[in-house]
Design brief:
The protein has two domains: 219 residues, Ribonuclease H-like superfamily/Ribonuclease H (Nucleotidyltransferase, domain 5, 2-Layer Sandwich); 42 residues. 56% of the residues lie in helices and 16% in strands. The protein contains twelve helices and six strands. The protein has a six-stranded mixed sheet. A hairpin with a 5-residue loop joins strand 3 and strand 4. The termini are far apart. The C terminus is likely disordered. InterPro entries: RNase_H, RNaseH-like_sf, RNaseH_domain, RNaseH_sf. Belongs to the RNase H family. It comes from Aeromonas veronii. One of its GO terms (molecular function) is metal ion binding.
Length: 351
């Protein structure tokens, strides 16, 4: 990464509001042990089309990149991710944090780095989140409006996160914000040693961590599309299938990303992977034509490979020189004689 790019990132970070520029202590360590490792947890969520969805939900995924640094300087790195069939971007972000905290294996000083202001502010005000949850739950379910249920779904995850924060493995916890999508591909990944100072080095490490977490989140969103299509094929409950068809139709219409992934997946399967009536229901005509075209192309490729295989076998057969029958008989007789002389035996040919 060039010095100009780093300067641009530093300027963009400085343009954020004061709250996001700050590092926030969520949990203080009651004791200190220099042997504790520093564990940096980078989380991200991806929701494909949720911004234009009426209910704010779509095919989503979450990703986590964890980097553990021991006192001796040993570095260990881990990545994980998952998919959500129908979720909004905030739920995807929260699922990443929840998964990271629930899968801790060793105690240490933790730092969560996220590009979601919702996550950072929520961690700082988690007690207020729980108070809000209790207030909504005190409302009679019949009197709750739609946004109550939407918010309650997120607040339930916050409640679980607060319980996870009580774990003895989380010796201390900080939260820090990073700007999203600062790196486009692997070639853009900078060398932290090129940093001029600790502030630049921290920024570079955060950008790298966010890149890996974002990559896993997008992979999760892809898997959400494939999992939805797999569910339609294998689920036997007609009611669940019908509800899934409705959700798939909505989510596929929201996102070109989801439609492209669906075409790629179905093109790799047999043409009858899903019934035609289901395909016609969940896809528009243009996407359906792309699926049919992909199947035709795949069939043409298979037929071409079969023709090439047969041609190769035919060529090899023509190149084989047949062995004269008399030569084969002579070789057999010589072998029998050698066998008799070796073991002093008589065979049925001698009788």
């Amino acid at each position: 990464m060039s010095s100009e790019k780093i300067k641009t990132l530093m300027d963009s970070f400085g343009a954020a509001d004061g709250f996001l520029q700050s590092k926030h202590k969520i949990k203080e360590a009651s004791i200190y042990n220099p042997k504790w490792p520093d564990i940096y947890i980078y989380t991200d969520g991806a929701s494909k089309g949720s911004k234009t969805s009426k209910d704010g939900r779509a095919f989503s995924g979450w990703g986590v990149y964890t980097r553990s640094v021991t006192v001796s300087g040993e570095v260990r790195e881990f990545v994980s991710g998952g998919n959500l069939f129908n979720a909004d971007s905030n739920e995807a972000e929260l699922r990443a944090v929840h998964s990271a905290l629930s899968n801790l294996r060793i105690p240490g000083r933790m730092k969560i780095i996220s590009d979601s202001s919702y996550v950072i502010k929520g961690l700082c005000e988690i007690d207020a989140m729980i108070d809000r949850k209790n207030a909504i739950e005190s409302i009679n379910p019949k009197d709750r409006v739609r946004w109550h249920w939407t918010e309650l779904r997120l607040l339930n995850i916050w409640s679980e996160i607060r319980e996870l924060l009580k774990s003895s493995k989380i010796l201390s916890l900080e939260a820090e914000w990073v700007r999203s999508h600062t790196l486009d591909n692997e070639e853009d990944l900078p060398n932290p040693d090129s940093a001029k100072n600790d502030k630049e080095r921290n920024l570079i490490m955060n950008c790298i961590g966010n890149f890996h977490a974002d990559k896993m989140a997008n992979l999760g969103a892809k898997k959400a599309v494939r999992s939805a299509l797999w569910f339609l094929k294998n689920e036997k409950d007609e009611y669940k299938v019908q509800k899934s068809i409705e959700t798939c139709t909505k989510n596929l219409a929201l996102s070109g990303f989801a439609r492209r992934e669906a075409v790629e997946f179905l093109a790799s399967q047999a043409p009858d992977y899903l019934p035609r009536n289901v395909l016609v229901t969940i896809f528009d005509d243009r996407t359906l034509a792309k699926i049919d075209e992909a199947h035709e192309q795949k069939q043409a490729e298979l037929e071409q490979k079969e023709r090439e295989r047969k041609a190769l076998l035919s060529t090899k057969a023509e190149q084989i020189t047949p062995i004269p029958k008399s030569l084969v008989l002579n070789q057999n007789e010589d072998a029998i004689e050698k066998f008799k002389r070796r073991f002093g035996m008589h065979t049925s040919l001698d009788r």
